[in-house]
Amino acid sequence: QVRLVESGGGLVQPGGSLRLSCAASGTMFPVKAMGWYRQAPGKLRKEVAEITDDGFTNYADSVKGRFSISRMNSNKMLSLQMNNLSYEDTAVYYCFVDVYRGEDTWDSDVYWGQGTQVTVSS
Q1: pLDDT digits (tens, 9 = 90+) for 60-83
Q2: What is the 3-class SS of 53-77, one letter each residue?
Q3: What is the pLDDT of residues 17-29, one digit of tens each?
Q4: What pLDDT does 77 receive?
Q5: Is 88 left (phi over 0), alpha (psi -120 to 50) or beta?
Q6: Residues 36, 21, 55, 1, CA torsion sign
C-alpha cells in the first residue's frame, strides 16, 4: 500500500513563502504522475501542480510563476515551493501520486495524503 504524508503547512503572511513536502512510502510500481491539489473551505478540490514520469510539469494558471514542484529520491519525496503567497492560496493542500498497477500496464491508481493546512493571513 502506498502512503503519503504531507508536511510544511502553516500560517504565513501575504508575500511569504512555504515549502510543502510529501513523503511516500510503501511498495510502488512506476509512477505516472505526482502532484498537488488544494481545497479551500466549501470549495472543490483543484489541481495545483503535477510532474509526470518523464519530468514535465504543469501548473494551474493561478500559481504559475509562483509555485514550483519537484521530486527527489526516486519519487520518495515530493515538494511544492510556494512563493509570493496571497490570501487566495489559503487551503488544505493534498499531495497525490498516480501509480501504475504494474510494470507493463497503463492502468493506474491514485493515492492521496491527508493534507496540510496552509493559511495566508496578515
Answers
A1: 999 999 999 999 877 789 999 999
A2: CCCCEEECCCCCCCEEEEEECCCCE
A3: 999 999 999 978 8
A4: 92
A5: alpha
A6: negative
Question: Residue 2, Cβ neighbours under 10 Å: how many?
Answer: 16
Contact 34, 78 (CB under 8 A): yes
* Cα–Cα distance measured from residue 73 to residue 86, given in angstroms and rounded to the nearest whole number: 30
To which residue does cell 504522475 refer?
33
Contact yes or no for 4/110 (Cβ under 8 A): no
Are 117 and 6 spatial neighbours (Cβ–Cβ below 8 Å)?
Answer: no
Which of 40, 5, 3, 22 has its CA nearest to residue 81?
A: 22
